[in-house]
């Protein structure tokens, strides 16, 4: 660099460097290629759900409709960024897979198309909504109209290393007290009794089991009863910091940390969903995997989760989009996807399939679906789920990772949430 | 319409210069200045579609928002660490590799490689290295009989600042090397004849003559520090809690997670004002320290 760089040069250089990236970051994405190009059917899909069963559906769909499916795969945060940019530009895909919660959000904002006319016409033939678990219809509806169709219905339960529990002379724990006792006994020689997830969505089974209602729109109460919420949060923090039966989680966008520890034989138990079954089986084929029902505290319950499909309001060919929805949610496709990956499905008839009932892993998950609740429903309907999730993430990590007293962190969270839920 | 030819030589030079500059001007206008204008316009609106007029309401909200204040303070602390580290480490490495050492070119290249690597790759790499349970770094420490560390939990901001320095210090070193090689050797020879030792020559000759380089490095480090995003996005997700909620990451979340484009745009404009103010202050202060021999 020249030592005689002029002030004007520096100002010019610094000003350009300062202004451009910061501001352009918020200016929306560059114009996307037309998602609705004739002959091309664009679908936004989660990168982890590219199953052979769905590829077969795509091939049949392409042949039947004489289109080429452009399956664009994303991680959830990237999919959201792309989708919001698309909404702003007006160039949208034909169909979107979403991680749960977006359907109502985008129905409220006018970005999702109501599917009620299609449901009225074809619902009987495809078994919708009669054959879908009620929670999956409720979380995809807004003001009495269906805006999305559930593709997978998942829940969180207890996965354990059978060999470790057998060596310790333990049965799978059923209650929080038994869980703590087992974790204490299993923690030794570089192995943790349990590994907890840093991702805030993993807090819900604990809160539901403690009897907590996240938000009651009738009374405006947040996280009530408060003592139960504090107890649930503090119980998890104590597993890490007081009893030292779990490693301190690390904040990250990656939620596979506990699964990796479990697969590596460094944790005896984890609380997770069916999405971790495949990685565990692939990375640790010799691990004796056990699955137990969700834990019980005041009640035995867990969180209903899973992905849905929706059609953007500006999608050019909604009839074609609906045809894809019907094909990919067909009973035989559900069956094939479960056989391929172990994924759980939203149809009531799926839960009664002989292969589901006879599989020791899938059966436990399928039974748990009956006690699965959707905790974010009431918050979603306020249109403030994004802010809620941001604050919840901060609060959960302050308690779980930074060991801030649960009562203090929860009080700060509810104060903030009261502000934006008014 | 006929195009008038400038009559003077200077006019003709200027026209040629503008013609050469035209592609760059068009590029910047299309991809930077128009989006900037769009952001300023969006900052005056509100709602999920940013379609309701808000006037200066977003700016007023941002100035009174404790989360915005917190993320700004976190960002300033991060930028201070990066600026000081960039100057001290970059200069130290440049001084070391300015010596007639064998293999110095190889070292220079090795130090520059991280700078050429994407922040996403660097972030993923260090996220895995720093994992307290499965990461390489704690295994190395264990091999040395030292206790493992919770790098990203006990000092998350310092840790991501160190990762940033690891990535960027090679570039800073190259800038300082260029500055060092621009200092005439005759100054050092004269000082040696006058009996000045190496330490004195460094303080009285090298450092003052590196002032323009130091100013440039510090200005660029402040700008990149205040604009840091990938480190929080890839390595820590802003956590634990909000410990690494850097300003641009915060703005990104307001836009794409809470879906408030008007509010995020207002915060972007405020951050721009802060960066420009910092830069001008630095330039003014830096120019006072310049010397010529």
UniProtKB/TrEMBL annotation, chain A:
CDD domains for this protein: PBP2_TMBP_like
Family: Belongs to the bacterial solute-binding protein 1 family.
Name the record gives this protein: Multiple sugar transport system substrate-binding protein
UniProt keyword Cell wall biogenesis/degradation, yes or no: no
GO molecular function, one term: maltose binding
GO biological process assignments: maltodextrin transmembrane transport; maltose transport
GO CC term (a single one): ATP-binding cassette (ABC) transporter complex, substrate-binding subunit-containing
Coiled-coil positions: none
Keyword terms, alphabetized: Signal, Sugar transport, Transport
Signal peptide: 1-27
Gene3D superfamilies tied to this protein: Periplasmic binding protein-like II
This protein's record includes keyword Signal: yes
From TrEMBL, chain B:
Tree of life domain: Bacteria
Gene Ontology CC: plasma membrane
PROSITE patterns in the record: ABC_TM1
Claim: Hydrolase is one of the keywords in the record: no
All copies of domain ABC transmembrane type-1, residue ranges: 72-282
CDD domains named in the record: TM_PBP2
Official protein name in the record: Multiple sugar transport system permease protein
UniProt organism field: Nonomuraea wenchangensis
């Amino acid at each position: 660099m020249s030592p005689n760089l002029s002030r004007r040069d520096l100002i010019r250089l610094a000003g350009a460097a300062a202004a451009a990236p910061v501001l352009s970051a918020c200016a929306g994405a560059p114009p996307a290629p037309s998602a609705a190009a004739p002959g091309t059917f664009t679908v936004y899909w989660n990168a982890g759900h590219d199953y052979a069963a769905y590829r077969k559906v795509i091939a049949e769909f392409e042949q039947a409709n004489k289109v080429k499916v452009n399956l664009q795969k994303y991680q959830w945060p990237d999919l959201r960024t792309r989708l919001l940019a698309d909404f702003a530009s007006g160039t949208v895909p034909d169909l979107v897979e979403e991680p749960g919660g977006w359907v109502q959000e985008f129905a409220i904002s006018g970005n999702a198309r109501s599917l009620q006319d299609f449901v009225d016409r074809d619902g009987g033939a495809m078994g919708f909504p009669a054959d879908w678990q009620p929670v999956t219809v409720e979380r995809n509806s807004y003001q009495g109209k269906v805006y999305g169709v559930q593709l997978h219905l998942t829940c969180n339960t207890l996965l354990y290393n059978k060999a470790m529990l057998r060596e310790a002379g333990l049965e799978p724990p059923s209650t929080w007290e038994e869980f703590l006792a087992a974790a204490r006994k299993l923690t030794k020689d570089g192995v943790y009794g349990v590994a907890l997830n840093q991702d805030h969505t993993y807090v819900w089974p604990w809160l539901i089991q403690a009897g907590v209602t996240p938000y009651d729109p009738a009374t405006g109460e947040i996280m009530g009863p408060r003592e139960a919420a504090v107890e649930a949060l503090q119980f998890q923090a104590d597993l890490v910091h007081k009893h030292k039966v779990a490693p301190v989680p690390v904040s990250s966008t990656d939620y596979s940390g506990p699964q990796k520890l479990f697969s590596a034989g460094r944790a005896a138990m984890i609380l997770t969903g069916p999405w971790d079954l495949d990685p565990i089986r692939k990375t640790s084929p010799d691990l004796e995997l056990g699955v137990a029902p969700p834990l019980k505290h005041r009640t035995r319950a867990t969180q209903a989760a899973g992905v849905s499909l929706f059609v953007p309001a500006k999608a050019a060919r909604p009839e074609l989009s609906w045809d894809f929805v019907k094909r990919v949610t067909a009973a035989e496709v559900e069956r094939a996807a479960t056989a391929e990956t172990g994924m759980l499905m939203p149809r009531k008839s799926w839960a009664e399939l002989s292969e589901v009932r006879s599989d020791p892993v899938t059966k436990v998950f399928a039974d748990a679906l009956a006690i699965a609740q959707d905790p974010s429903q009431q918050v979603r309907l306020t249109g403030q789920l994004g802010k809620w999730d941001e604050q919840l993430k901060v609060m959960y990590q302050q308690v779980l990772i930074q060991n801030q007293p649960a009562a203090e962190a929860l009080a700060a969270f509810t104060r903030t949430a009261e502000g934006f839920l008014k | 319409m006929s195009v008038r030819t400038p009559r003077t030589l200077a006019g003709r030079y200027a026209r040629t210069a503008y013609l050469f500059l035209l592609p760059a001007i068009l590029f910047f206008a299309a991809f930077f200045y128009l989006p900037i204008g769009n952001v300023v316009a969006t900052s005056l609106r509100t709602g999920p579609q940013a379609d309701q007029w808000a006037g200066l309401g977003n700016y007023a909200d941002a100035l009174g928002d404790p989360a915005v204040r917190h993320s700004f303070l976190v960002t300033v602390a991060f930028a201070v660490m990066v600026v000081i580290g960039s100057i001290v480490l970059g200069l130290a490495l440049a001084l070391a590799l300015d010596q007639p050492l064998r293999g110095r070119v190889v070292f220079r290249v090795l130090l520059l490689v991280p700078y050429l690597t994407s922040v996403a790759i660097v972030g993923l790499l260090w996220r895995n290295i720093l994992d307290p349970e499965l990461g390489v770094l704690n295994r190395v420490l264990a091999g040395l009989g030292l206790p493992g560390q919770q790098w990203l939990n006990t000092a998350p901001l310092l840790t991501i600042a160190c990762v940033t320095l690891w990535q960027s210090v090679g570039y800073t070193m190259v800038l300082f090397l260029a500055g060092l090689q621009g200092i005439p050797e005759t100054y050092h020879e004269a000082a040696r004849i006058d009996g000045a030792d190496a330490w004195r020559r460094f303080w009285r000759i090298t450092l003052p003559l590196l002032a323009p380089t130091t100013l440039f490095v510090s200005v660029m480090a402040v700008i990149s520090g205040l604009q840091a995003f990938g480190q929080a996005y890839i390595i820590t997700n802003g956590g634990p809690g909000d410990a690494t909620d850097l300003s641009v990451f915060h703005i990104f979340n307001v836009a794409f997670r809470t879906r408030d484009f008007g509010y995020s745009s207002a915060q972007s404009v405020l951050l721009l004002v802060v960066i420009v103010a910092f830069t001008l202050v630095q330039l003014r202060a830096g120019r006072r320290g310049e010397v010529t021999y």
